[in-house]
């Protein structure tokens, strides 16, 4: 089986890595994190011009690729540079939900604005009581004439503070944990009754908690068919898991390189750290963790692209294993750098923070291990 990248994927990988090495140094990233927007609008426009924002969508949807393998290439390269721009929130989560659910006319308007970089979007699905269960939804959308009235609250909405349009998951029928009866609505962020509490997460990204109080929407705000959002969003979450696993792999590979380089220059007891065999073994184990993570990621992406019956099981296996690897590699990198490994001035601690958050996104290692074992019987 051929695991090599296609010519187009290799060109994509090279272009992103060139951007990271030349235009995305750590100090520049810190300035972006501390800015009002939380990312670079100029970078985002460049992503659109180069076609990166359209790589996650099929040609039928106006994109240039659409495979999980394409997303894997992008996110792994972004992970190496700790890229802060909201690609995950726009192109994987919100864009993925629109691609799965929306009508042709809705795709023409909503997806085109994402691919062109003209509009920021966010997917609001998580609630405080849900614990990674999409179906556990208390937000409700009640029929009101020709439209709907939304009430409820969402937490940890990635890019929620910057989004022009927020895709809100709400229950149009059924009880709290029913898989049927969930619908998705496109809500402009300036709609009366929608409140946002914006914040910066520990890894430097932006999020928001959202409250909906008697938000009136026209029937056209419904994305796709009423009550049929659950299965589509499960596929979106699986794809998002592949994306963040690829980002984690890029993080881990960078931490390994930085740790090895540091061990060759830092001296202790008159010798460089790389001289000590016990530390050599620890760095060798970091390398093994990265290789195993890459294998698990490739398996998940290929099964997802092939629409294999066990694709979701493979995704959970990868998410659980890569979450464990991320913890191991991140902790070793911090410890081998000593106290400076957790200072704000050194990028190592920031990679570790991102890996910690990635483990929690879309279900942590424990959640996906349980999901995997349940699927395996």
Could you characterize the architecture of this molecule?
The mean pLDDT is 91. Helices cover 51% and strands 16% of the residues. It is globular and about 80 Å long. The protein is built from 11 helices and 10 strands. By secondary structure, it is of the alpha+beta class. The longest helix has 34 residues, at 230-263. It folds into 3 domains: 7-119, Acyl-CoA dehydrogenase/oxidase, N-terminal domain (Butyryl-Coa Dehydrogenase, subunit A, domain 1, Orthogonal Bundle), CATH 1.10.540.10; 122-227, Butyryl-CoA Dehydrogenase, subunit A, domain 2 (Beta Barrel); 231-376, Butyryl-CoA Dehydrogenase, subunit A, domain 3. Helix 7 (230-263) packs parallel to helix 9 (311-337). It has a 4-stranded mixed beta sheet, with helices on one face. Strands 2-3-7-6 form a 4-stranded antiparallel beta sheet, with no helix packed on it.
Question: CATH homologous superfamily name of the largest domain?
Answer: Butyryl-CoA Dehydrogenase, subunit A, domain 3
Give the domain tally.
Answer: 3
The CATH class name of the largest domain reads Mainly Alpha
Write down the overall mean pLDDT: 91
Which strand order spans the largest sheet, edge to edge or round the barrel? Answer: 1-4-5-8
